[in-house]
C-alpha cells in the first residue's frame, strides 16, 4: 500500500481538470477518465492510486490519511478547517464566496440579520469579524430561494458566473473571499511519502510553466 501515492479527486469537472494536471505531472492513470462504476483506479507503474469522492468529502479522506493528497476548493477548506497542509493553488475552479440579497436590500442593523447558507462556519466567521449579530439558517442547496420567499435576509454562497443570482433577482453585496482549487496533503503522508509528493509538486509547477 505504501508504495502508492493515494490521491482523492472531487467527482466532476474540477476533478477531471485536476487529473489532467496530475497526469501531465507524471502520475498518469488513464482509467481515471473512464472508470465505469469503479471509484478506485490505480497505475502500478506510476505508483499512483486515485479515488473519486464527493467534493465535500475530499478533506476528510486526506485529514484521516485515507488519501495522501487531495484536491479541495478553498470554500471547503474555510468551512471545514481540516488539519491538513495546503500545498498549492491549482488555479482551477475559480469563483468567489459572496453575500447576496434581493436588489435594493439595505441592512437594518437594529435587527438580527437572517443568513441562509451551506457554509455556516464561513458565515459565522465573516459576520463575527464585522461585529454583526446574525441568525444562521443552514440549508443544503438551492440557497437562493431563501431571501425570495422571506426565509432569510441574505445568503452566503458561491458565485461563479452570477447567472443563478441574476435569474433569481439577487445581487452580490460583498465578496467574502476568492475561491480556487487547492492541493492538500495529509500531514504524515507529506513526511513519509515526501519523494513522491515532491515529484508531484515539481511536475505540477513545470506543467503550469509549459502552459
Ligand atoms: C452553486 C452555488 C450557486 C451556483 C453559482 O450551486 O451554490 O447556486 O453554483 O453558480 P453561478 O454563479 O455560475 O450561477 P450548485 O450548482 O453547487 O448547487 P446547489 O448549491 O444548489 O446544490
How would you sum up this structure, described in words?
This protein has 211 residues and is of the alpha/beta class. Helices cover 32% and strands 31% of the residues. It has helices at 13-24, 58-63, 74-80, 120-130, 145-148, 163-167, 187-192, 194-210, and strands spanning 5-10, 40-43, 48-53, 69-73, 85-89, 95-102, 113-117, 134-138, 154-159, 170-179, 181-185. The chain has a 6-stranded mixed sheet. A 5-stranded mixed sheet has the order 8-7-9-6-10. The chain is elongated. The mean pLDDT is 95. Bound molecules: 1-O-pyrophosphono-5-O-phosphono-alpha-D-ribofuranose (PRP). 1-O-pyrophosphono-5-O-phosphono-alpha-D-ribofuranose binds at residues 141-142, 144, 157-164.
Topology:
Layout: E1 5-10, H1 13-24, E2 40-43, E3 48-53, H2 58-63, E4 69-73, H3 74-80, E5 85-89, E6 95-102, E7 113-117, H4 120-130, E8 134-138, H5 145-148, E9 154-159, H6 163-167, E10 170-179, E11 181-185, H7 187-192, H8 194-210
Parallel strand pairs: 1-3, 1-4, 7-8, 7-9
Antiparallel strand pairs: 2-3, 4-11, 5-11, 6-9, 6-10
Bound molecules: 1-O-pyrophosphono-5-O-phosphono-alpha-D-ribofuranose (PRP).
1-O-pyrophosphono-5-O-phosphono-alpha-D-ribofuranose binds next to strand 9 and helix 6.
Amino acid at each position: 500500500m505504501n508504495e502508492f501515492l493515494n490521491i482523492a479527486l472531487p467527482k466532476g469537472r474540477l476533478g477531471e481538470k485536476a487529473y489532467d494536471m496530475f497526469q501531465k505531472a507524471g502520475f498518469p492513470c488513464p482509467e481515471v477518465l473512464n472508470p465505469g462504476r469503479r471509484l478506485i483506479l490505480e497505475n502500478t507503474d506510476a505508483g499512483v492510486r486515485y479515488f473519486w469522492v464527493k467534493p465535500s468529502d475530499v478533506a476528510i479522506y486526506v485529514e484521516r490519511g485515507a488519501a495522501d493528497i487531495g484536491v479541495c476548493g478553498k470554500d471547503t477548506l474555510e468551512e471545514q478547517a481540516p488539519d491538513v497542509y495546503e500545498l498549492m493553488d491549482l488555479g482551477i475552479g475559480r469563483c468567489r464566496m459572496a453575500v447576496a440579497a434581493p436588489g435594493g436590500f439595505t441592512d437594518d442593523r437594529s435587527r438580527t440579520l437572517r443568513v441562509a447558507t451551506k457554509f455556516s462556519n464561513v458565515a459565522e466567521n465573516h459576520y463575527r469579524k464585522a461585529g454583526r449579530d446574525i441568525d444562521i439558517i443552514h440549508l443544503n442547496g438551492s440557497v437562493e430561494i431563501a431571501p425570495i420567499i422571506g426565509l432569510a435576509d441574505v445568503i452566503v454562497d458561491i458565485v461563479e458566473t452570477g447567472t443563478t443570482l441574476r435569474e433569481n433577482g439577487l445581487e452580490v453585496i460583498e465578496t467574502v473571499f476568492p475561491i480556487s482549487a487547492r492541493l492538500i496533503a495529509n500531514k504524515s503522508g507529506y513526511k513519509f511519502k515526501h519523494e513522491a509528493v515532491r515529484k508531484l509538486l515539481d511536475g505540477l509547477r513545470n506543467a503550469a510553466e509549459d502552459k
